[in-house]
Write the structure tokens for this entry.
Amino acid sequence: MKRAALARGCHAEIVLEALTGTGLAASAGLNAYIPLLIMGLLARFTDAIDLPGGWSWLSNGWVLVILAFLLSIEMVADKVPVVDHVNDVVQTVVRPTAGGLAFGAGSASQTVTVSDPGSFFGSHQWLPVAAGVLIALCVHGVKAAARPVVNATTAGLGAPVASTAEDLGSVVMSLVAILLPILVLVGLVFLVWFAFSVRRRRRHRKLERGQNVGVGNRQLFG
């Protein structure tokens, strides 16, 4: 009986550990610096998360200052049309890297819901980092694909709105991943829905452009 209860508890810890890392990595796909900064601040000033020795540098004062400075640059650049596209190209490397760091640190940390961190990834230290890189890269890909659609349909006016929504989403996802990781599932469902929505809109725009070109050619050549 006790063994069965212990096994169930262990399985629950594994799920929460994975959800914490997944939520933080997805957050990094939206904004590379927000999840790292939130983890560092919470570890430094609260008991919400206890970073293991290998990741304690995230709560260092100088690291937090550097992350805050990089975040301020990112938040400005991502809200300016055209500049946001250049920023997304640069962030193709930065966001997946941050996602790997966020997943690695988050899944190995003791939080309010995970009391035995590392129970699943303990013998495979590279696995959470690799998973975080992949998750953040996928989310970044959706974000980068969606922004040109937003800019084209709003004449660039939607860029700061979309960017602000992404920043807020990154903050919420990071906090949820640490404090209530089960809700990360809701965020993942929304991201999947959003990815399919972006794909449909891009396909629709291509069809419209093709039709417009066809009409223009018929008018030109009579």
Remarks:
- DSSP finds seven helices and two strands in the chain.
